[in-house]
């Protein structure tokens, strides 16, 4: 009589985990389909990401190529507009559509890069403040209060005026000046989590503080971290556009939506399309990210769910 071979526990656990992940994926997709806000946000964000990735294939012209003969040409649907420049041209004859497509890359890179910097700083400081408490908490929170007391845009203007503009500098400046929200939220989460029984048990068996922080506490604050990061990408994109508009952000030949908007501000009365289309691009992108962030907050925190 032959015996049935037994499956190894590791294989069973892997299979169970795959099934659970598949079920979670189906549930998440179902929630997304039911949410108008979340679905619109995902569509907008994915569209912007695809445009930025495939910019060389979607652009019809070199974004830096000038054509004085066809300067301030209107969009294709207006009189004297042509299909060669679907959204028209700017004051130097550069194609607006191509510049918008390439400008999306700068906005995405700066937005995500700044969030990585601010999220890393804020998360670490929030973990330390909430877990250790006492003088560590007091020092970090007073530092956070100091940053809140200084107008963010003014601080960034001063730093960029001294250091000079550039993508790396812009990411660093926006990231360093926007870590406070992460630190405050993560600190509040840690204050609650560190009183849980499993944290006390880990301390009881001699686990080191770093292991408790990064193996037991940090995974339990990921949900809040994801929501804050998503919404802060929108803030970083607006700040980048604002600084580029003021001339302290991205410099030519790199293309920025804020830079295009700045180029078109003096032509808003006669050639409205130069400033209008980059403004719409910023608005649509930020709106999509905010919709996605709101949906993620509703999914992650069941107490925040709203009826749509």
How would you describe this protein?
This protein is mainly α and 308 residues long. It has one domain: MetI-like fold. The chain has 13 helices and no strands. The chain is elongated. 33% of the residues are buried.
What descriptive keywords fit this protein?
mainly alpha; MetI-like fold; single chain; disordered C terminus; 69% helix; 308 residues; elongated
Report a brief summary of the structure:
With 308 residues, this protein is mainly alpha-helical. It has helices at residues 9-34, 36-53, 55-58, 96-132, 134-149, 152-163, 167-176, 180-193, 197-204, 209-217, 222-245, 257-264, 273-300.
The gross shape turns out to be elongated
Summarize the main sheet.
Answer: none
Give me the CATH fold name.
Answer: MetI-like fold
Structure annotation, total helices? 13
Residues in β-strands, percent: under 5%
Assign the structural class, choosing from mainly alpha, mainly beta, alpha/beta, alpha+beta, or little secondary structure. mainly alpha
Helix content: 55-70%
Low-confidence stretches: 10-20, 302-308
Order of helices and strands: HHHHHHHHHHHHH
> Into how many domains do the coordinates divide?
1
Q: Radius of gyration in whole Å, from Cα?
A: 24 Å
What would the average pLDDT be, to the nearest integer? 83
Query: What's the CATH H-level superfamily name?
Result: MetI-like
The CATH class is Mainly Alpha
In angstroms, what separates the terminal alpha carbons? 61 Å
- Give the total of beta strands: 0
- CATH arch. level architecture: Orthogonal Bundle
């Amino acid at each position: 009589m032959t015996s049935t071979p037994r499956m190894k526990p590791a294989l069973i656990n892997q299979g169970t985990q795959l099934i659970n992940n598949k079920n979670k994926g189906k549930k998440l997709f179902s929630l997304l389909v039911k949410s108008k806000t979340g679905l619109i946000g995902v569509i907008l964000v994915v569209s912007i990401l695809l445009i930025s990735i495939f910019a060389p294939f979607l652009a019809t012209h070199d974004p830096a190529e000038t054509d004085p003969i066809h300067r301030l040409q209107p969009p294709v649907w207006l009189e004297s507009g042509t299909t060669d420049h679907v959204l028209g041209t700017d004051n130097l004859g550069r194609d607006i559509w191509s510049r918008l497509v390439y400008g999306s890359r700068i906005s995405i890179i700066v937005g995500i890069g700044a969030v990585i910097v601010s999220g890393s700083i804020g998360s670490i400081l929030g973990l330390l403040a909430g877990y250790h408490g006492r003088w560590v908490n007091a020092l970090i929170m007073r530092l956070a209060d100091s940053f809140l007391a200084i107008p963010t845009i003014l601080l960034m203007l001063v730093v960029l005026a001294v250091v000079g503009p550039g993508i790396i500098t812009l990411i660093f400046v926006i990231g360093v000046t926007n870590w406070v929200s992460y630190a405050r939220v993560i600190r509040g989460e840690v204050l609650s989590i560190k009183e849980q029984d499993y944290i006390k048990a880990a301390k009881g068996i001699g686990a080191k503080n770093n292991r408790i922080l990064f193996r037991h506490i940090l995974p339990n604050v990921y949900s809040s971290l994801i929501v804050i990061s998503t919404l802060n990408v929108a803030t970083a994109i607006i700040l980048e556009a604002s600084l580029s508009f003021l001339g302290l952000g991205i410099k030519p030949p790199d293309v920025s939506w804020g830079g295009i908007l700045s180029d078109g501000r003096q032509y808003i009365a006669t050639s409205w399309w130069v400033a209008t289309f980059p403004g719409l691009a910023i608005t649509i992108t930020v709106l999509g990210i905010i919709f996605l962030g709101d949906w993620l907050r509703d999914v992650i925190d069941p107490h925040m769910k709203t009826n749509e």
